[in-house]
Amino acid sequence: VSWLFNPSRSEITSLDSGNIDDILNNADVALVNFYADWCRFSQMLHPIFEEASNVIKEEYPDRNQVVFARVDCDQHSDIAQRYRISKYPTLKLFRNGMMMKREYRGQRSVTAIADYIRQQKSNPIQEVQDLEEITALDRSRRNIVGYFEQKDSDNYRTFERVANILHDDCVFLSAFGDISKPERFSGDNVIYKPPGDNAPDMVYLGSLTNFDLVYAWTQDKCVPLVREITFENGEELTEEGLPFLILFHMKDDLESLEKFQQEVARQLISEKGTINFLHADCDKFRHPLLHIQKTPADCPVIAIDSFRHMYVFPDFSDLSVPGKLKQFVLDLHSGKLHREFHHGPDPTDVAPGQPIQDLASSPPESSFQKLAPSEHRYTLLREKDEL
Questions:
Q1: DSSP per position, 22-54
Q2: What is the CATH number of domain 13-121?
Q3: Which of 186, 162, 121, 213 minimizes the C-alpha distance to 145?
Q4: pLDDT computed for residue 348 by the predictor
Q5: pLDDT confidence of residue 330
Q6: C-alpha to C-alpha distance for 86 and 39, rounded to whole angstroms
Q7: Which of 312, 293, 268, 298 is nearest to 367 (CA)?
């Protein structure tokens, strides 16, 4: 009867620098356990993770449908660094080799993990049976609608792959055959319907078989250039590893938000990928404002969080001055903001022979730095328990 107490061990795939790309790229869905042997919680998760793998492999026997894998972060620190792993254990979801923004944060139980994978395997695309359904769409959401001659086509397979990755950010719908025909006057067609009843539709004009082009276009439509940071998504945004440029504004102050969005699009589109553009509710996040000597009465306020310090944009009224906001971001990247935080404004004139202060020496800790825990979690989140 020993089998009653010793369930069969699952073959969890161990990833290393030699096999990780090949295994993840060929997996429809992969759940990867980033762990450290010395971590008690990693040790507790191992048997649960293995049993969840056993359950799922019964339902999805094809080895490329679902992969359960693990990375020993002590042995493979390069992989941990590549995916910005800073705590153990961390469960990350991958689709066709692409890591999803939202890591698994559910219960660490066999049932919960298995249910999560089943959910990830469900079809992210709603099939439309009548074009009247399109006119009744929820226009508070971002909708991507594909019109295809047939489901068994390269065009639809590309659309399906993109939807698998971005379905948390957009609603995906599709129509086929005679139902979709009125919308296919020039062949298969994909349309973006942005939020707002009067917002104009946008048509994808590239090749529908080119995944990179379709994904880039869809991501641009589904993920706003300026996103709202909340208590719910703050840690997820932090894990993207990019510093934040944040507009703190009152919830009903949409005018300031619109100006910020316009100037980010005008001045900083080339910086996308080096910094996250965000906006936050001043009233909800009073405590982070206090760290930069501001209150909701001072809003709107623009600041950068570099994860070491917060730097304040001098004057919101200068937002529309050409190049002013961009220079603020460039000063972050050059290190100027960090230097001036500790040493005051950079010297502009130095008398011959006069030594310049050694900026490479270890500066004293800022008061904000002392507030931060050793493992950084964004300030907004740290205030949640204080509200």
A1: HHHHT-SEEEEEEE-TT-HHHHHHHHHHHHHHH
A2: 3.40.30.10
A3: 162
A4: 58
A5: 94
A6: 13
A7: 293
pLDDT of residue 360: 33
Give the count of beta carbons closer than 10 Å to the beta carbon of residue 59.
Answer: 12
pLDDT of residue 278: 96
Given this model, what pLDDT does residue 9 score? 54
206 contact partners, CB below 8 Å, separation of at least 6: 213, 214, 217
The rounded distance, in Å, linking the Cα atoms of 268 and 121 is 37
Instruction: Judge whether 150 and 181 are in contact, CB under 8 Å.
Output: no
227: β partners: 278
- The first and second tokens of residue 195, run together, are 């939020």
Provide CATH code, domain 227-344+354-372. 3.40.30.10
| Contact yes or no for 180/149 (Cβ under 8 A) | yes
Sheet holding 13-14, edge to edge: 13-14, 66-72, 29-35, 90-95, 98-99
Query: What pLDDT is attached to residue 365?
Result: 34
Quote the distance between the C-alpha of residue 241 and its chain's center: 9
Letter for the amino acid at 177? Answer: G
In this structure, the strands spanning 189-193 and 13-14 are unpaired
Check whether the bond before 300 is cis (ω within 30° of 0). Answer: yes
- DSSP H helix total and E strand total for the chain: 15, 15
Q: What is the 3-state secondary structure (H, E, C) of 96-144?
A: CCEECCCCECCCCCHHHHHHHHHHHHCCCEEECCCCHHHHCCCCCCCEE
Domain boundaries, the chain: 13-121, 125-222, 227-344+354-372
DSSP-derived pairing of the beta strands 226-228 and 202-203: unpaired
Low-confidence residues in the chain, pLDDT < 50: 1-8, 349-387
Residue owning tokens 């730097």? 311
**Sheet of 310-312, strands arranged across:** 226-228, 276-281, 244-249, 301-305, 310-312
**Gap between the Cα atoms of 316 and 314, Å rounded:** 7
CATH 3.40.30.10 fits 125-222, yes or no: yes
Please check whether the two domains, 13-121 and 125-222, share a CATH topology: yes
